[in-house]
Amino acid sequence: MTDENKSDSTATDGGLSAEAQRVVDQIEEGDIEFLQLQFTDILGTVKNVSIPASRAEKAFKDGVYFDGSSIEGFVRIQESDMRLKPDPSTFAALPWRNGQSARMICDVINTSTGEPFEGDPRAVLKDTLERASEMGFTVNTSSEPEFFLFEEDEEGRATTKTNDAGGYFDLAPKDLASDIRRDIIKGLEEMDFNIEASHHEVAEGQYEINFEYEDALTTADNIATFRTVVRAIAAQHDLHATFMPKPISRINGSGMHTHISLFDENGNNAFHDESDEFNLSETAHSFLAGVLEHAPAITAIANPTVNSYKRLVPGYEAPVYVAWSDRNRSALVRKPAARVPAASRIELRSPDPSCNPYLALSAIITAGLNGIESGLEAPDPIRENIYEFDEETRMEYGINTLPGNLGEAIDELESDEVIEGALGGHVYDKFVEAKTQEYDEFRVDVSDWELDRYLETY
């Protein structure tokens, strides 16, 4: 992938592009004092380098250098110099900084080659989208990240005490966080998010804010920003926002249902076919089949923590069975109702908000594109409630189960060349290394549950 595309910020004559100049003008007109240049490490943690806003023009022209050896999964100490290239299209003032600070999301450039760094998750997604483009498609996505709001203790540390007793779609007074969600939404809208809906989720203290369909790169950028905004504004209310998949035992965890569709070169939804029983085209059926085929390996990327698998258990509305449906939500993939052809899409319900959005979308899209290239055929939809099936019935239907823990998911990833290819060699190796270590540390740790259960019994 060449160092161009969405993030071009310098003109061919060495000056600024029109979009970069617009940002420089906005900085001057808005009295912006500092710029946060953001990117993510391989695990999806947002990192940033802060510079005086007066250096924006230089940042566009020359980039900003940093030590890549200090970032999870980037480079070794002897090859540490990296360069941040700001994407002017992502400029937005930070609402919790009184308009004095702004952020831009950056691409990471390998200083030795001048090319995008292969370990940059954003570059990984760009490569995937370029592959889709070569097949004649653009990719549109949206995600529904859920989160919990918890009270803090006297020392400002997070507890697991929820700040309300509300349930699904409840209103005040049970939903005590409506004012906080209002502030979050207001902040997001100030950053040019198009908010579609907001509501209380099933569990106490759990919420969901949905933003509209965008191209896949913008969606990934939005998810990374969304998590930062939610945490920052919650902290202003002396609350802790967490995207941990399962912070409390025996209640619903937080998911990040992800909607996807492809559009052809004429701007038509390549997933829609009016003559099909489900209004899904042959392309959509093959894409869906690819997602189901590679779902076990995708799980390692879309559900990347030990805690993710405390959510992926039957009985708590999280999908664990590899099947699809146009009716019920017990299947892994759902075909939502579409009011117009442009809205035809599929919804993958397994991802959770702890994932790196760039890598998760890359894995999902690659799986679907592989399904199209391989001419895979989707199985029949399952319209019954799979949660009510016994094991024998699931076997009769040919329904497999997602990995039960992070170790099993890593094993699936290591045996799936398609999803490995989606990540690229550098990211794949570093991701597997980090997650294998995480799971090994978990396996040898003794939990409070074990001590309570066994210490005095045996």
Description:
The chain is α+β, with helices and mostly antiparallel strands. The protein folds into two domains: 18-117, Glutamine synthetase, N-terminal domain (Ubiquitin-like (UB roll), Roll); 126-453, Glutamine synthetase/guanido kinase, catalytic domain (Creatine Kinase, Chain A, domain 2, 2-Layer Sandwich). It contains 14 helices and 17 strands. It has helices spanning 18-29, 56-62, 121-134, 178-190, 216-236, 282-293, 295-302, 308-311, 357-374, 391-397, 406-414, 417-423, 425-444, 448-454; strands spanning 34-40, 46-52, 64-67, 81-86, 92-93, 101-110, 138-152, 158-162, 195-200, 206-211, 214-215, 239-242, 256-263, 321-325, 331-334, 346-348, 400-401. Strands 7, 8, 9, 10, 11, 12, 13, 14, 15, 16 and 17 form an eleven-stranded mixed β-sheet that branches. The radius of gyration is 22 Å and the shape is globular. Residues 1-5, 75-79 and 166-175 have low confidence and may be disordered.
